[in-house]
TrEMBL record:
Keywords: Methyltransferase, S-adenosyl-L-methionine, Transferase. One of its GO terms (molecular function) is N-methyltransferase activity. This is site-specific DNA-methyltransferase (adenine-specific). It comes from Acetobacter indonesiensis. It comes from the Bacteria. Belongs to the N(4)/N(6)-methyltransferase family. InterPro entries: DNA_methylase_N4/N6, DNA_methylase_N6_adenine_CS, N4/N6-MTase_EcoPI_Mod-like, SAM-dependent_MTases_sf. It catalyses: a 2'-deoxyadenosine in DNA + S-adenosyl-L-methionine = an N(6)-methyl-2'-deoxyadenosine in DNA + S-adenosyl-L-homocysteine + H(+). One of its GO terms (biological process) is methylation. Its EC number is 2.1.1.72. Residues 122-443 form the DNA methylase N-4/N-6 domain.
Amino acid sequence: MEKLKMHSSDLIMENIAKVRELFPGCVTEAHDEETGQLRLTVDFDQLRQELSDHTLEGSQERYHLNWPGKREALLAANAPIAKTLRPAREESVDFDRTKNLFVEGDNLEAIKLLLENYLGLVKLIYIDPPYNTGNDFVYDDDFEDDFATYLIKSAQTEPSQDRMVANPESNGRFHSDWLSMIYSRLRIARSLLHESGFIFVSIDVLELANLISVGKEVFGNDCCIGVISRATGTRMGSGSRGIARELDYIVVFSKNAESSLLGLPMSEKEMALYDQEDEKGRYLTRSLRRTGGENRREDRPTMFFAVQDPDGGDVYPIAPEGYESRWVCSKDTYKKLVREGMIEWKKVTRHGASKWQVYQKHYLKGGRKEVSDLWNDGAGNKKATKELSALFDGVKVFDHPKPVDLLRRIIKIGTEAKASDIVIDFFAGSGTTGVAVLEQNAEDGGNRQFILVQFPEEVGDGTEARKVGFSNIAEITKERLRRSGHAIATGPHHVDWDGDVGFRTLKIDTSNMQDVYYRPDLVDQKDLLQAVDNIKPDRTPEDLLFQVLVDWGVDLALPIRRETVQGKNIFFVDENALVACFDTGVTEELVKELAGREPLRVVFRDNGFVSDAVKINVEQVFRQLSPGTDVKSI
């Protein structure tokens, strides 16, 4: 019976496999310096030659972003970890029914653990990472060890509370450390995104250029949709050297270069502008001649050409002042607009003379409008702080929360209400993204799901949060979700809303498996008797279930039901998506009964069978009664 691997994906080996598919001659075998065993590796000299149109002799200069520690950051993104997610029912809300997740722990480890479960499924990611102002804390990603040592550490080291370290400007690697931190996380974030998905990253001006550069490297130049300037409503004058900053920025990338944001709903006044209608729907017209800035022929010479009016005459883009202007499109695009019925001619009278004027049609498209890159009409940071404090009875429990309205706007333009879109924020902070998802669902009857990740960073002594009993930020996040969820559930909402204001709390911890499970070569003979059971003694069956869900790539938000069958505790995940039994003394009769339910997957404890004969017969029983079931053990 095949055993589950019980650690996250080895992205290095997966990437090597992808290279081998494209360039088989570029993948070879080499001895691992640490273990002496053979493993696949890439012949990078050969790969470079495969991708070049001329003979290469040595390294050459090329356009790319580089910094000290970039290779370690790439290792941080690709290396597997032998950790798990442990459920915390008592810290959750509506644990068995909710579709929302709250993950407590290091966010790099979290998104690695989530990768197989949500690979290519996330529609929207929003993050608000540390701005790197010199006063912020960044994640201390210590990946300077070799790959093998790192895997051992990830399996055996206890969780550290010292993962957040100050990044002062006096640090010689000030920008490099920040780039390494964000680079590794963006690489995994891209893999999580759906093909039509988007990521929004809040940042200030100090790291804006670096963020754009590293984002283009991860997502591609064509996938940088733009930069949104947001008015914060607060003048940040300290240390600004004469320019008070009242803006921060949101950089937007897409997974696919062809994806477009949905746009915002139009007001009735805006919709009234679409005062014409044909078989395609309501539309308005705008002049095909470019108006405003850069509207002269010399600005875009290829956009100055003649078009034919309905009478066969040539019409050029001439401005009312008499100078040669230009069209808004090229000649090829104009021909395409004509074929698609998007061009309309109208007779206009100018200076007593009648002449043809050419216009382009713009259809209503479901009542949505394109989003401006200047957001100066939303709630500011002060309002966000006041609203959060009001939720906590006037206590300021968190500094600088983002406004809920800001996140709701992002959710509106990045997700569909009824598509079960998944929204992730792995720098969750006070939980604004989760609250915004709940509020937006309640308003439009949507069924979006959120996944929040927050490290339990300790709050400072003497802070208001500490005085009212919070020891770390993750506790604040969860309590805000509870209070906001209750307020939303008891307030007005859409008739179609399912009422889900819960969240399932999962905490990152060391693996449920004993060290012998991962490195049996390190176990002394005298310790073998203690290692008969490869599961740690303090772990519950539900702990084991969630590690199986992570390892098997099953949705972590599926409903879970527990049932007693022939005296054994059985977990049914989404009824028959996965059936798990971690009790001992499993008989062949129980195996046959579970096989009769024809689950998609089934998992048992490796030493949980009443005899070796039963263990040997398990796969044969399922082949006979439920041949489509995938059978594994831990």
